[in-house]
Amino acid sequence: MLIVMQRVLRLMGGSPWQGTGAGEVRPERGARIPAHDIIAEIAEREWRAVGHGGAGAWWRRGAAGAMQANYAGGMARPRRIVLIRHGESEGNVDDTVYEREPDHALSLTPAGLRQAEEAGGPLREMFGDQRVSAYVSPYRRTHQTFRALGLDPARVRVREEPRLREQDWGNWQDRDDVRQQKAYRDAYGHFFYRFAQGESGADVYDRVGAFLESLWRSFEDPDHPPNVLIVTHGLTMRLFCMRWFHWTVADFESLSNPGNADRRTLLLGENGRYTLDRPFDRWCQPEPYGATG
Q1: How far is 20 from 32, CA to CA, in rounded Å?
Q2: Which domains does the chain possess?
Q3: Catalytic residue of the set 36, 44, 86, 90
């Protein structure tokens, strides 16, 4: 193990996390090479030298990103990560309800319950008899959505995850004040504007990033389920993907929220990278400030 990692470090010219992009390094000579490919090639040579085979293929199935140094531990990344927004809630149809009820306590409407039940069929077919690791925002409407999906409890490990909650807009909300602040947010930018006594999109991005660190650590368990399900909110879904795929703020600002009970799926490819099954709708073209856009 030590010999393999020393060779990797020499080839990379330093730390296994140095590079020009996520999971990539630039050797002294040649084009950009994914870090997991470098380690896989060296590991395969070393294992064959002692009478083993197929280490490279095993590595590509089991590691990525900052976890590459753990390849000997049998990291088990899920085949898919499904993000789903809650069904239609009381607040989606009547914004005066926030004056009477806390945001976290709002329920699904009858239409929202039907949306969640209808979304459950394709998910049950997708998961089949495979195990699922589920994370649910602590809001009532997300818990109701999760229950309405009708997943087999014998195959699902579910956790409430507060870091996946909705953007905080303050406590008791005055409808006229919130409408005015939404207008300010539209002019200022959804990512940077902070609601009075609440959060900005950037604040939600930070806590979603903290959740992702925990999620990655869970993949170190070699018995991790092959599916992850996240029941959350529209803004949180977009920020999750922004963080995962390293989208720019300009990219985020151009995206529309998914519909109620709508989902997006991150699929693990043969190259060891995740891709989004379909894009979010755009309401405008991104306008980046710099070369990263």
Answers
A1: 8
A2: 2-73 (no CATH), 80-276 (3.40.50.1240)
A3: 86
Count of alpha carbons within 13 Å of 139, Cβ hemisphere only?
Answer: 28
What are 50-92's pLDDT values in tens digits? 444 443 333 333 333 433 433 334 578 999 999 999 999 999 9
Q: Any catalytic annotation for residue 246?
A: no
Find the radius of gyration of the CA atoms of the chain: 22
> Structure tokens of 125?
């077919």
Confidence (pTM): 0.75
Strand ranges in 61-191 using DSSP code E only, listed in sequence order? 80-85, 132-136, 156-160
Chain segment 174-214, per-residue pLDDT in tens: 888 888 998 999 899 999 999 988 999 999 999 999 999 99
Among the listed residues 44, 90, 166, 199, the single catalytic one is 166
The verdict on whether 104 is a catalytic residue reads no
Sign of the CA dihedral running 83, 87, 89, 95: positive
